[in-house]
Amino acid sequence: xxxxxxxxxxxxxxxxxxxxxxxxxxxxxxxxxxxxxxxxxxxxxxxxxxxxxxxxxxxxxxxxxxxxxxxxxxxxxxxxxxxxxxxxxxxxxxxxxxxxxxxxxxxxxxxxxxxxxxxxxxx
Length: 123
Prior knowledge:
There is one protein chain. The chain has helices at 84-89, 102-113; strands spanning 25-28, 31-42, 45-51, 60-64, 68-72, 77-80. It is an alpha+beta fold. The protein has one domain: SH3 type barrels, CATH 2.30.30.240. A six-stranded mixed sheet has the order 4-3-2-1-6-5. A hairpin with a 4-residue loop joins strand 5 (68-72) and strand 6 (77-80). It starts with 24 loop residues before the first strand and ends in a 10-residue tail after the last helix.
């Protein structure tokens, strides 16, 4: 995957431009991560801020939208192509100001870009 595409929804993700994903449940390849707290785009780097709840001690995680493999508006779910452990190991998200920090966003993008590609399973 080209680095730029980590910040863009895949054409086959089911995402519709302008769609509000706030409140949707975020599901990794091995279980639920949390809920979309907000969507943001700074410097052309679109991402979701996911409230992980008690799973990661109340922390939030920043996930580039290029990791989204599916959006189900009826079920209010967003599926991402990584594991819970991979999200937990990503550069730590501490404050909202980091969503406007080009260096922090670049480090997050680089981390997710380097993850091994996932096989998608047919339902």
